[in-house]
Amino acid sequence: MAIGGVFGGGTQFIGPIRTSVFIKRRWTDSWRYMPYLFPLFSAESSSPSISHAQFVWNIGAISQHDQASYQVYTPLQLEDWYIAVNVHSIYGTFVSFVGIVLNVAVDDFGTNATTFVSSGNQLLNAVGLEYLLKAGRIQGSYVEGGTFIERTLVFNQRHDLGPAFSGNRSNARNGDGVYTFSADGAEWTHLDILEYVLWFYHPGMSFVLGGQAWVLDQFVGQYDFRGKEVWQVLDTLIDRRRGLGWTIYFGNGAGTMTIVVYSVLTEPIQFQDFLMPANPWQESLGFIGRHDLKPRLNVSRAHTYNRVIALGAPMKTCMSLAISNATLEAGWTQAEREAYDAADDKTRTTDAFKRVYAFFRIPRAWNWTYNSGMDGTPYIANPWHTSDGRIDVTVQGPFWNADHGVLRWIPFEQAAASADAEPEMRRPFAVVQNPDRAEGTDEYHYVNELQAALLENHHFGVSDREMGILIKGRANHTFALNHFGNTGENPTEPEATNVLPSVDYAEMICTVFLPTDVHAKVVYFIPENAGMESAKDLVIEMPEAEVWYIAGGTVSEISGGQLVYNNGGLPQVVRDDTHKLRKMAAAAAAWYGQQRNTFTLERAGIAPIHPTGRLIRAVATTAFHVENVGTVITQRRFDYRDNRMTIQTGYTELDFEVLQQ
Fold first, then answer.
1. What is the pLDDT of residue 142?
2. How far is CA 207 from CA 106, 243, 260, 338, in A?
3. Bridge partners of 320?
4. What are the structural domain ranges in the chain?
5. Distance from C-alpha of 611 to C-alpha of 263, rounded to nearest angstrom
6. pTM listed for this prediction
């Protein structure tokens, strides 16, 4: 419910206030009234700030307003005591602060020469109850069966030796209503972790989650909180960069404290399967003709963007390479080949000749176009993306054939050993014709399975440093049938060898996976900021957003000695995460398309209105002008002596790279 959002004029009646201060040694004790302990101010704050307050206690021989004689008041010993403030006003009675005294200072005014009684002021500095969350630290773990172990486990780390991300949470809650560590393998959400931490590591009093805490059930991550404060766990999991904040609600200063989770959004944002809701406690304020208010609106254009660019990983292209269509060439020089042919078998095994007849590379001048080995159809190997991230196979993207390698896998799954086995990707491969096949026919074999044709097997590998492949047999020239010893115009008889050539590399086809210089990308324009000189581009990197493209004419396998072409030889996109980029860009544009300003309001009179976590949507400065604010109240300060209160809003920009993790 919006309190204080009244549009109208005139001076508002500000009644007097009276305060009363209460103390207790233990949280389970009853509050004790301290009639002459006076609050100076208190400030209720949202994380990461801590609520705080200051009190004064007069020392010396004093005649209080309700006493007929002087009494001697000595310094109080209230360090580590709980303290609370009640405010009594025209709005009724409400609790304005609950905390714990951290330190005490004394202003000494000297000693009376006649009575020998010292006088002065004792200042007590207190912090909010959220400070106690710094006392609890995460040490050890609570596991299934109610057992505590001294080893501090990592949330969502596998309980076995597997490297993959996995859960280690129980499937069911225990008798206290929280999950524990278990081999069941369920994943911990942020909500699960916080409930576990607040239950097992709370600092003597109970804290529970409230407000929009359900949002936390959408986030899953791996966290090592060993030795961390409970406060640090809260700030990590209720992340301001994800559009969330938290504050403490202390109610009437007894029982369980509530950690109120709130959204900083004026409107909900949804992308992928994730919903970030709007703040449900929104209000607009009006100051027309109000003389008891002192508002200040701070307008900033520091975070103004005219374009959002959601940038994924470099697109990867799977294709088949061959000497025959000029997508492969020899990775050695003519001089190296002639020297190899003239050497003996022992010399040919030295490093000087390791590339001859064995290393093949994509030509450095290759323009990423080729003709399909299936039917000669021309194709583009690095198609471009439209601004909304969709692939246009008719338009070529930019390229630079340097600092590229060949990936060690291709986007085809291996046949699983069992139905529940984790699928694995196949490795790049090469096939070659059997030189002893019947004339006019094709008979392909994998180079590492040539024994089926009574030929010698070869090893196939790829290069990490350049776009090339490596074929190794018992000797390099076993792969050089019709080439070994044939040096062009002046063929020479090679030196005697004990290893004869068996297959012709010119009849080889290899299927590989290549990173391109084209990124998966979505560009989203923000029309509200178009034309602004200070506007700039916002780039959000999502390296897990992939596009896998299988080019036309790509050989996926061989069957019965015949080539099998993926998708009938036509191009195919087998993974396209650009929908994630589109949703991310749209969500970011929705956030940055709204102007957000910070706001401070000082008003006469203390009232139980405008608590932290509430969102100020707009303010009306005149009857004709409403200015957007769109930020959350992060501090509410009460100055008790002056009977004034001040609120201020603040915000942290959403970090969409963090939000999508």
1. 96
2. 34, 22, 10, 81
3. 511
4. 20-131, 134-269, 310-415+423-588
5. 14
6. 0.69
